[in-house]
């Protein structure tokens, strides 16, 4: 078994996961290969569960394999013949870990997060909205990466919300790489079917959980601006970005629709949620970054 850490959890895996940080401690999560009976009623991904949080959930990923997650502790991988290692790891470290974190009671958003002077700032939006690009640009300005694509939020006993650090990697398109002064040459593709690149970082990654300061919903607009949302509006905007909502209706049902609503309602109640408007023009990225940094300064960061 290989030993790693991700999202503050110790991961023992029979598969090599070079994206993760090595750490040898007793396992919170075990990932192993094994036979899993498929449940393919929902096409690309399907799920069944014995309970809302604990229980067993199965997935079928087309051309990847069948996966079983049990009680937020066990992760069984049954690859299809010919599945590439890259595609398998992408699914495990994306969809798989996201659902497992849901099982363990975390609020999981399809979002990227950085630490600004020790406080977590979350960027969320539709696919292509620029979540990873903006987080990577903030990282290039000296702000530590917390997590890219999958943001896990934990409610602490003293009622604070914190973002758990994921692992030190961005997933970026070549055009986004150019915007932060990097070139795609030599960087591995996430898999053979798409040109998005894995950008592993050796510095500027936060290994400590950070208190959640605010959430930005990224929207395309002809002008720059940051606007606060009411709690009701924030709840409506957060619900579609609850990570499992983007996978399948069966999975949402398996994890519990009430959990989705209550977790997003807690975020809307406790955290400032803002609409961040800007043109999708990478040339104005410095202006966007300055606007975010100034807004964080006004919020006490």
Explain how this protein is built.
- There is one protein chain.
- This protein has 301 residues and is an alpha+beta fold.
- The chain has two domains: 104 residues, no CATH class; 191 residues, Rossmann fold, CATH 3.40.50.
- It is built from seven helices and 18 strands.
- The strands form three sheets. A seven-stranded mixed sheet has the order 3-1-2-4-7-6-5, with helices on one face. The chain has a five-stranded mixed beta barrel with strand order 8-9-16-12-11. It has a three-stranded antiparallel sheet with strand order 13-15-14.
- Helix 4 packs across helix 6.
- The relative contact order is 0.15.
- About 4% of the residues have low confidence.
Quickly list its features.
301 residues; alpha+beta; Rossmann fold; seven-stranded mixed sheet; five-stranded mixed beta barrel; 18 strands; 26% helix; globular
Strand content: 25-35%
| Overall pLDDT | 88
Identify the CATH architecture of the largest domain. 3-Layer(aba) Sandwich
Helix content: 25-40%
Structural class: alpha+beta
> Strand order of the main beta sheet, please?
3-1-2-4-7-6-5
**Can you write the helix and strand succession as a string?**
EEEEEEEHEEHEEEEHEEEEHHHEH
- Describe the sheet with the most strands: 7 strands, mixed
Shape: globular
Taking the alpha carbons of the first and last residues, their distance comes to 41 Å
Number of domains: 2
Rounded Rg: 19 Å
CATH class designation of the largest domain: Alpha Beta
The CATH topology of the largest domain comes to Rossmann fold
């Amino acid at each position: 078994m290989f030993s790693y850490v991700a999202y503050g959890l110790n991961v023992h895996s029979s598969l090599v996961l070079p994206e993760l940080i090595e750490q040898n401690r007793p396992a919170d999560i075990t990932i192993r290969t094994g036979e899993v009976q498929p449940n393919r009623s929902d096409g690309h991904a399907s799920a069944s569960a014995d309970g809302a949080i604990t229980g067993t959930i199965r997935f079928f990923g087309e051309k990847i394999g069948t996966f079983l997650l049990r009680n937020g502790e066990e992760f069984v991988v049954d690859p299809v013949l010919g599945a590439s290692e890259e595609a398998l790891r992408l699914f495990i470290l994306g969809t798989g870990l996201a659902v497992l974190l849901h099982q363990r009671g975390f609020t999981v958003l399809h979002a990227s997060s950085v630490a600004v002077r020790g406080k977590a700032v979350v960027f969320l939006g539709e696919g292509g909205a620029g979540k990873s690009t903006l987080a990577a640009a903030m990282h290039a300005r000296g702000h530590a990466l917390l997590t890219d694509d999958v943001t896990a939020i934990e409610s602490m006993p003293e009622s604070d919300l914190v973002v758990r650090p994921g692992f030190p990697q961005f997933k970026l398109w070549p055009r986004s790489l150019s915007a932060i002064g990097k070139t795609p040459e030599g960087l591995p593709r996430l898999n053979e079917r798409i040109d998005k690149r894995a950008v592993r970082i050796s510095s500027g990654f936060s290994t400590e959980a950070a208190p959640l300061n605010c959430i930005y919903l990224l929207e395309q607009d002809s002008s720059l601006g940051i606007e606060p949302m009411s709690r009701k509006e924030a709840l409506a905007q957060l619900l579609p970005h609850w990570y499992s909502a983007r996978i399948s209706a069966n999975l949402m049902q398996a994890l519990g629709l009430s959990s989705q609503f209550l977790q997003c309602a807690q975020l809307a109640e406790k955290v400032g949620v803002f609409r961040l408007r800007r043109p999708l023009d990478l040339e104005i990225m410095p202006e966007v970054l300055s606007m975010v940094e100034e807004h964080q300064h006004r919020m006490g960061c």
